Amino acid sequence: MSDQPEPPAGFEASGMRLWEAVTTPYVLTPSELSVLAEACRTADECDRLEAAVRELPELVVRGSTGQPKVHPLLEEVRRHRLLLERLTAALNLPDEDQQVGLRAGARHARKAALGRWNQEAIG
Questions:
Q1: Are 93 and 26 in contact (CB under 8 A)?
Q2: Is 104 domain-assigned?
Q3: Environment class of residue 68 by beta-carbon count within 10 Å: exposed (0-12), middle (13-18) or buried (19+)?
Q4: 110 belongs to a structural domain
Q5: Domain for residue 20, yes or no?
Q6: β-strand pairing of 68-70 with 60-62
Q7: Is-contact 71 53, C-beta < 8 A?
Q8: Secondary structure of 41-79 as H, E, C letters
Q9: Looking at the domain assignment, is residue 100 inside a domain?
Q10: CA atoms within 13 A on the CB side of 13
Q11: Residue 63: which residues within 8 A CB-CB, separation 6 or more?
């Protein structure tokens, strides 16, 4: 019997790929599985929104006073991408060279330190 948890019903292709990509190598807690499920749903929603954007005849629409403005679906795609990024970051999965994932603050500090170190090596 597999230790890999069953995905919730209703995932589409992107959601299933994300679920399998995370649950195959990692063991997640129930709360992490909930976050992953939301990330998978968001990935599927991104696909549907992006498909709708591709079907638009124009990316610019007229605003309430007749001014040109970006189609609202583009903003929604952007928001969903940000949400997906936040949800996957919240999973705190380790990089390939780590045993445990770094929290957001530690990840930022590590990136800053590596940046400083690289600058010193160059200069």
A1: yes
A2: no
A3: exposed
A4: no
A5: yes
A6: antiparallel
A7: yes
A8: HHHHHHHHHHHHHHHCCCCEEECCCCCEEECHHHHHHHH
A9: no
A10: 3
A11: 69
pLDDT at residue 2, as a whole number: 58
Q: Which residue has the tokens 């445990």?
A: 100
Structure token pair of residue 70: 């970006």
Structure tokens at 39: 């990330």
Task: Output the six-digit token pair for 62.
Answer: 């007229």
When divided into structural domains, the chain yields a total of 1
Domain extent for 26: 13-91
pTM over 0.85: no
The identity of residue 22, as a single letter, is V
DSSP letters spanning 71-107: -HHHHHHHHHHHHHHHHHHHT-PPPTT-SSPPPHHHH
How long is the chain? 123
Rounded to 5 degrees, φ, ψ at 27 are -105, 120
Q: In this structure, what token pair is assigned to residue 101?
A: 């994932």
Q: What is the pLDDT of residues 75-102, one digit of tens each?
A: 999 999 999 999 999 999 887 665 444 4
